[in-house]
Design a protein that fits this description.
binds flavin mononucleotide; Rossmann fold; globular; alpha/beta; six-stranded mixed beta sheet
Length: about 140
């Protein structure tokens, strides 16, 4: 059974999960965007929160949307303003996940993601959601995988 982790990470939590899943036999595909959020905390939060709220379409860099060879697809996204991050949401729209086993790994400061959960239940019924609270800091969280 072939499996892949497709994810975005701005500050490293997603990267840590990717390292873990790579050891478990997952292929890894990181989503990259042309323009990252600003470095300053305030502008980062304002810009990312706003983009997530309006479902902003990012320009992805060299993103391979082909997943036909995989049985299992795990989508990883940080939570922005309770939603999927815009890089992950943009990439997700290009994936044909029909008949795949799909899991969403959501990493966040709070460990919950109300709007993202509603979106996933509505658009990807049958998929699984795992919430992790800052796995880079909270090492125990990785055991949820
Ligand atoms: C723009 C922005 C918005 C965020 N909004 C939320 C939020 O609504 N709820 C939450 O629990 N954490 C929120 N966070 C925190 C991140 O989801 C959290 O730090 C996550 O682990 C980051 O993953 P990464 O290091 O892979 O980028 C936000 C972070 C950013 C940058």
């Amino acid at each position: 059974m072939k499996k892949i982790f497709i994810y975005y990470s701005l500050t490293g939590n997603g990267d840590m999960i990717a390292d873990h899943l790579k050891r478990d036999g997952y292929d890894i595909r990181k989503i990259k965007v042309k323009k990252e959020l600003p470095k300053s905390f305030l502008f980062k939060m304002l810009s990312g929160g706003f983009k997530a709220a309006i479902d902003y379409k990012e320009t992805l860099v060299d993103f391979d949307h082909e997943v036909a060879e995989y049985d299992e697809v795990v989508i990883g996204s940080p939570v922005w303003n309770s939603r999927l991050s815009t890089p992950a949401a943009t990439a997700l729209k290009t994936l044909d996940l029909t008949d795949k086993k799909v899991t969403f790994l959501l990493y966040s400061g709070s460990g919950s993601a109300k709007k993202a959960t509603e979106f996933i239940h509505k658009n990807y019924p049958g998929s699984k959601i795992v919430n992790l609270k800052e796995p880079k800091k909270e090492k125990e969280e990785i055991k949820k995988l």
